[in-house]
Amino acid sequence: MDANGIDAAPGFRAALAVADAVLYEGYLLYPYRRSSPKNQVRWQFGVLLPEPWARAHGLEGGGVAGSAESWWQQTECLLVAPADAVVRGRLRFLQLRRRTSEERLPDGGHREADRVGEALSFDEAVPRELDVLASVAELLAGEKRLDLRVPGSETVTPLPGSAGRTRWREWPLSARVTLSLTPCETAATTAAAPLPAGETLFRLRVRTENAGLEPAPETPREEALQYALIACHTLLTVPGGRFVSLLEPPDWARDAAGACVNAHTYPVLSGDQVVLSSPILLYDNPRVAPESPGDLHDAAEIDEILSLRTLTLTDAEKREARATDPRAAAILDRVEAMTPEDLARLHGTTRDLRPAGPVPWWHPEADASVSPDTDAVEVAGTLVRKGSRVRLRPRLRGSDPQDMFLDGRTALVEAVLLDVDGARHLAVTVEDDPAAELNQWYGRYRYFAPEETEPLDGPLDGPLDGPLEGEPA
């Protein structure tokens, strides 16, 4: 792209690093061997299969979770932009590439083999990118549809020693991207108008479909994946404009954010000029930890643990991993080259987020009256403090998506905390969590706003007089 393209947008580099992790999430899991059971069923996120095959297999749902396969995904996000702004997008996905080993026959011919020497048959993948753009004025005049195609290919490479050859094959892919833009009303504010003159709040919709017609409905999944867009996601920028968070929208855009419908993907911000719409749920402004030495294809795992366990593989297991996939070989090379100092950096990092200068009012060093072990907060007429029991009711928006799995569970309050804005939070451990005692020992809690809980203890005897303990008068 040119210097004014999508790559030049502030926040794009950080978003791209996360997008690369999304692209290869679960691509190949420890112990990185083809024979490992966890590597028998692959491609779990953002899989868009051809529409006829998907419909025949009942893949019609529209939930946010990108682990639910479909033939389409939809992103809706909010942007503020003038009429002359241009929306730039980049569709990214993996194209399956089948690597087949073929042994040489005495007559000079070849036949497929599971293995020829150290050469294994395996499904690799090739990253693909397709760019789209449209001006705001163009989209206000009507939706814009782009039909995109990735050609198939087939190559053959001889193996050393005339033992046979390796055949790589990719099947053609077809995709359809539809862009549309709708002006949104903004809520009135008590201050000045929230948007400068000439700017409008819009809802941008990006719908991506697998437009392929093959294979036949009775084809098994492992073969249908040959025609799939795998780990499909979208990056969006709007130079001259800005995006609005759907996770924490400002009051004037809250209704518009609630009206956005996302299916099989969810958009988050990287700065205010870039959106990453990912099949894996993320926070706004996600980042790859700077201590991470490279992709291990399992972002939910700890780099230190995976690296140390990789070092414990036997020589035979390492040979198989290297033969399985070039990315597995790269992981082994990187881990084996790590020094003790490299490993120590993975053990943990403490970042002091306190601003420079005088200790702020909210820090315990500045106000000894703030005491998480004894402070309390009133919830539905009940005084909640350390030791109280509550039922968890996470709010639908602005929460960690994984908190929704805890809806209705009971928890024990471990501390009442005060944040930099003066808001209170409850640190809790889930009561039926087998690791509850270990989490208490480590001090690893889950955090909820008081209004996200229902007290299970008795109500207050009477109204509170004055501020709660530890709260400024």
From TrEMBL:
Q: What is this protein called?
A: Uncharacterized protein
Q: Which intervals carry biased composition (Low complexity)?
A: 456-473
Give the residue ranges for region: Disordered.
452-473
